[in-house]
Amino acid sequence: EGPESFPPLRNEAAVRVLQGRMKGIQGHCNSCYMDVALFSLFSCTSVLDSMLFMPFPLCDRNVQGILRDEIVNPLRRTGFVRASSVMHLREQLTDKGQCSSFTNAEKDPEEFLNLIMQQILGIEPLLKLQSGGQKEQECYCYQIFMDKQEDLVVPDVQQLVERSFLSSDLKLVEIPSCFIIQMPRFGKEYKMFSKINPSLELDITDLLLDSPRECCLCGDVATLECS
């Protein structure tokens, strides 16, 4: 018999199971970067469920089992994950990684995702990006970098991704199977935006390399692109 699985929460079920006190992933000892990443990746979507079941080339089945049985399944079943379960995962990551501070220090979510996806599970990179005609680069998530924009008071994710790609002269080489996006910094010292509206759908037409698009003047297939 294979490992137990629970489907991601959708619509009314998501509201019923996840809303209220003592819901979500319990924080402890600077775990917020990992808590929010795990919640985003698994609570309401199955796009990355292969991480929980597939025997990848480098796959550490112990870490995979903790992730599935102690974090994702309880989150989807009851809407709550104890801090001790996340600490169990952090201890395993500390053992497997090159870094000894996964159990107590605040990290960048990208560092956590790279460690668990690349070094521990051996998943192929999810994104292929190209900047200004240079060699394409592969990665697991995209972090939004941009200067403060006075005209954006409460931006949505669509606006932030488009402006960030534009300012870095970036394009997606192909349509990604999963597009993990890290929002701009929001720490104790500095907040770029007090709020960001989540875009429930993301239009990546203008972000794709060599994608046929219509001319904004005549409506025919465009032959030139101006930023």
From TrEMBL:
Cytoplasm among keywords: yes
Keywords linked to the UniProt accession: Cytoplasm, Hydrolase, Microtubule
Pfam families named in the record: UCH
GO MF annotations, alphabetized: cysteine-type deubiquitinase activity
InterPro entries xref list: Papain-like_cys_pep_sf (IPR038765), Peptidase_C19_UCH (IPR001394), USP_CS (IPR018200)
Peptidase C19 ubiquitin carboxyl-terminal hydrolase domain ranges (all copies): 24-203
Protein name (record): CYLD hydrolase
Species of origin: Vidua chalybeata (Village indigobird)
Highest taxon of the lineage: Eukaryota
Annotated Gene Ontology cellular component terms: microtubule; spindle
PANTHER family: 40S RIBOSOMAL PROTEIN S3A
